[in-house]
Amino acid sequence: xxxxxVLLAASIxxxxxxxxxxxxxxxxxxxxxxxxQIAHLLFAGAMAFFLRQIHRENLLKYKGFRYLSWAAWxxxxxNLDAVVGHFSEWALVNPVILGGGWDKRLxxxxxxxxxxxxxxxNHFVLLAPAFYFFYRGLKTFAQEARP
Length: 147
Hints:
The chain is an all-alpha fold. The chain has a domain at 46-147. Helix content is 69%, strand content 3%. It has a two-stranded antiparallel sheet. Strand 1 (97-98) and strand 2 form a beta hairpin. Helix 3 (63-90) runs antiparallel to helix 4. It is flat, with a radius of gyration of 23 Å. The termini are far apart.
């Protein structure tokens, strides 16, 4: 019994007075970058769960859910692309844009810089159809709900 009480007291002290934990690393751009990455992964997971529920309940027979299913796929791809792009951005060591004004040019010196730019372009290539299908799905539901 005494061992249990000692372990309980030690656990309470440990939880009440935790040791310092760094909320950022030297390679992170901002202190919230890791939270941002986790949010992308959680959003992708939520969309995957949404897709699973649509298929499990056999809701693809409805046009609105077909649109929302496509939107969820694009949101998943966009989030995974964003995670890779953010990691790539953190790994850049040289400035990627040289010059200023009309004299700006990109510095493409290794595979990571290419990956960074490709993921940045895909960011918008994947997000536009995601919102389009999301809009179409909601619009379809709104039109079906009218008498």
